[in-house]
Amino acid sequence: MAQDFDNFPLYDDLLKTDEKGKLSNKMSDLWVAFIATFTQNLTGYLSQNGIFVPRLTTTQRDDLQNVMGGQLIYNTSLEKFQGYENGAWVNLV
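Structure (tokenized):
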């Protein structure tokens, strides 16, 4: 997948402009191609390897900022999957 990024321009405009220079609601062709390739590669990778949940110690977990409901981690201190629910981390069973 790294080869897909070798020639990827860093400053490509996300949106196209029309003939008057006004932004349109269509993404540039480069972004469309990039997203299609990325999605295809990610799907292939996940079908071979599954997903990986972030692995954190309890201390690292407690240092997280802006935690949101539904966030998942694997707590390496407790050797348990945990999710953030109703303002607290809970073990997933």
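The beta strands are 15-17, 23-27, 55-56, 72-75, 80-85, 88-91. The helical segments are 29-49, 58-62.
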